[in-house]
Structures are given as structure tokens and as C-alpha cells.
Amino acid sequence: MKRGLHIYLILLLGCFSDVAFASEPAADSAKVKVSFAYDLNFDMQFDNREFYKSAYTSSMTIFGTRLTPSVGVALEQKNGTRHRLMAGIDVLKNFGAANDNSELFKEMTLYYNVQKQLGKTGFEMVAGVFPRRFAEGSYSQAFYSDSLRFYDNNLEGLLLKFSRPKAHFEVGCDWMGMFDTYSRERFQIFSAGEGRVLPFMSIGYAASLYHFSCSGVSDGVVDNALVNPYLRFDLAYKANLQTLSVRLGWLQALQNDRAHVGHYVFPGGAEVVMEVQKWNVGVKNDMFIGKNMMPYYNTVDNAGYKYGSLLYMGSPFYRVWDNGRDGVGLADRLEIYYAPKFGAPYLDLKVSAVFHFDGEKYCGCRQMVSLNFNLEELLRGNR
Hints:
Elements: H1 3-20, H2 26-29, E1 32-50, E2 60-77, E3 82-94, H3 101-104, E4 105-118, E5 121-131, H4 146-151, E6 154-164, E7 167-177, E8 186-198, E9 201-212, E10 222-234, H5 236-239, E11 243-257, E12 268-278, E13 281-290, H6 308-311, E14 329-338, E15 347-358, E16 361-374, H7 375-381
Antiparallel strand pairs: 1-2, 1-16, 2-3, 3-4, 4-5, 5-6, 6-7, 7-8, 8-9, 9-10, 10-11, 11-12, 12-13, 13-14, 14-15, 15-16
């Protein structure tokens, strides 16, 4: 672990330790209710990608399901502070793949979770190996693609969250790679927040600092920072719709391939996300106009490995121009979906058709079905 990250984490924990773990009177701390804790999340994804006209990604079908059960112990203090210590397993099955247990059982989940209410401010901390769904910030697909969210289901590190009646904020660290002969040291510090300033308008941001370091067979370090400030306008209450929103944002990257370039480059661009929904049927359009946000995607290190999706975890369509070409390009993602409501916040079903465009050129279509059952949402509602 780099010394700088050590200092960052120490300062981060020091800032919030008094808030999260303020000392309690001895009489109160002794009054702790201990109970059995459990959680269960089920996720099924079907994503048929027909990208025969795209230079950025291949045609393929992602079809699989995952189950992430966990059990542990819960402690509730008299003042309402809740602690959980959980252990579980992440089980992933790609439909049609051979029954190889080494691939079926992805990894263990081991985490500590504390929740505390401080007046109107809610605080939550998660530490260990825990499901990505704990991070609730609004991140553009320039940060994380659909396939990454499904296949890289867990975060390894620390997450802090704060919530107010009109705002929420989170900051975390995900350690993705340990230095080894063929494995790069990789970690990402990420954050997101949003606050409502008018009944119809919110101001928000998302940001990440990704450190893509070296391995035993490959020297060099790549710094990859990305920030995304935005304005969100929610007008559904004025139009008698389930959803009517417009998000106007800017994506700005700061990247430096120290071994092959030696100086920072600053690709950026505007992003507009519009969505309308009525009777559970919706249309969502994500449009990006800007420069190639992944300039080192095709770079090959001195061990012969391509940076590719190891360095850039977002949708490959944010490359807009590739193979060294420069200038402003356009990427557009149009989704038409049906998302029925079952009166159950713990169950989500969505059927979509997604059309991708590169500039004025049609790149291909995706047919998608997603189903998610989250027991935590049911348990939260029953508390």
C-alpha cells in the first residue's frame, strides 16, 4: 500500500470516528440487543448485444444469475445505533457454462456495517468485502459499465455515507489489485453526492481517482481521475408523470501514463441524460459530446498486456474517437423499457431495448432483461 493512501485513510477515519463512534455512557453501552442477522440478494441479467457495426465492442450475450446470501450477528444499542458483522458467499452462474465450482463460487463477503442517526443526519459505514449495491451514488456509465456492475459485484475496502432530508453524500475506497508477478496494484477512491436546492432542481457530482500501478513484469503507473458535476431537473410532479427528468453534466478526466506519455492529458465533454416514464413504460437517452475519454485504451505495456477495460471501467462508447484520432465526437444511448411495479421495493424487473449510436452512425442494439430481489429492502421496511 502506498504511503499516500495510508495517510488518506487515517485522516478520513480520524475525521469521522468521533461522529460514528462517540463514546457512550457505561450504563447505555451495556444495554445492547444482540440478534441473528441475515441478508439475501438475487440478481439475473440477460443482455443480448448485437454490435456488428461497432468498432468499440463485440457482439455477445451475457446471461447469468447470482446469489449472495450472508449471515452474521446484529447489535442494537439503546440510542438506536445498529451494528452488523456479516459473512457470506458470492455465487455466480453463467448460463450454459460448464459446472466448474472454481468459477461458480466467486468470493467470500466479509464486512462490518454500522448505522447511526445524529439528529437529521444519518451516518453509515461499511468496511471489508461487501456488495457494490451499498454504494448508492449516481455515477455516469463513464465510470462503470453495465457488465462491470454485474461481474464485479463486490467492493473491497471502506465506504462512508451521510444522508440528510434533502441531500446525500458518500466516499469510499475500493482496492482492486494487489502487487504480484502478473497482477497490478490497483485501487480507486470514489465519491458522489447530491443536494436538492429547489423543489425541481438538484446539484450533484461524482468523482473518482484511480491508481493503476505496476506488476512484477510491467513497470509504469497510470493516473486516471474523473469528475462529473451536474444539474438535475425533476419535473414529473408538474406533468403528472412517474418520471420526467433532465440531467446536464460535464465529464472531465485527468490522465497520465507515466511510462509511455509522461504528462497529463485532459479529455472532457458534456453529457445530457433525459428520461420520461408513464404507466411503467419509459424512454431514457444518454448523450455524450466530447473527446475520447479513454485515450490509453489500446496501449500495450512492456509485458504485452493491453490496458483496455483494466484501466477504463466505463462503457467503451465513451472512446468516441479511437486509434489515435482526435477531435470531438458523439455517443448516444437510447433505451426504451418496461419496469412494472409490484408494490414491493425489494423486487425490481426491467425489460429494455437499447440502441447505440456513434455520431450519426447506428452501432447496434441490445435486448435486456434484469430481475433483482433484495431482501435488505424488505428487512429495512419491517424495522
